[in-house]
Amino acid sequence: QQPVQSPQAVILREGEDAVINCSSSKALYSVHWYRQKHGEAPVFLMILLKGGEQKGHEKISASFNEKKQQSSLYLTASQLSYSGTYFCGTEIEASGSRLTFGEGTQLTVNP
Amino acid sequence: DGGITQSPKYLFRKEGQNVTLSCEQNLNHDAMYWYRQDPGQGLRLIYYSQIVNDFQKGDIAEGYSVSREKKESFPLTVTSAQKNPTAFYLCASSRWAGTSNQPQHFGDGTRLSIL
Question: Which residues from chain B sit within 8 angstroms of residue A43, using beta carbons?
């Protein structure tokens, strides 16, 4: 089952914050977050595991709500380099990184 | 430098032709994956392999075939049975430790178009 990401797109000014959500209709075992710039390969950001703690990476952090089967990605004090499409990949059982990706959230950071 | 190399970067397919996309990794990763990405869409899993000489179908395997004869190589063949092959194809790899805490590393992709 493909996870649902929201919003589909967001436009920010440099320095503003954003939240991207990833929801599943099934119980999640792990959630992976990636960022892809146009025409390039996706780049790994972080993994959240069931029962694990909130993760952080520079000014980007994420949480995993097991009860709601949802993960949120938080981007604070956004920089121009944060522009791109953010994908969540979800794993509904411990299959060893077989992921189902959402359709992505396009983030644009303007000066 | 360790990484994943996909070739060619651009590929054109004629009607009725099979084409093979190459994916090589020198990360010593056990697991390898092939994804298809259509414009404005997410990544859809075509095939994946967790060990040499073994692979499993993903969500959209019809019209594609793979082989895994060597740990470092996982070529994808787009057969003539795939009627809509135009897409961006991404290969990825990860360590396979029987757990889910391993990130996937992606190649730069191959863009396939129909002539």
Answer: 106
Token pair recorded at residue A53: 């703690």
Report the DSSP beta bridge partners of residue B31: B94
| Residue of B42, B43, B100 lying closest to A29 (CB–CB) | B100
> Do B101 and A49 lie within an 8 Å CB cutoff?
yes
Q: Do A89 and B43 touch (CB under 8 A)?
A: yes
Q: Which residues of A touch B103 (CB under 8 A)?
A: 32, 44, 47
Widest CA span of chain A, in angstroms? 42
Please state whether B100 falls in left (phi above 0), alpha (psi between -120 and 50) or beta.
alpha
Extract the residue ranges of chain A whose pLDDT is less than 50: none
For chain B, what is the largest distance between any 2 Cα atoms, rounded to a whole number of angstroms? 42
pLDDT tens track for A51-69: 766 666 668 899 898 888 9
Rounded CA gap, A42 and B109, in Å? 10
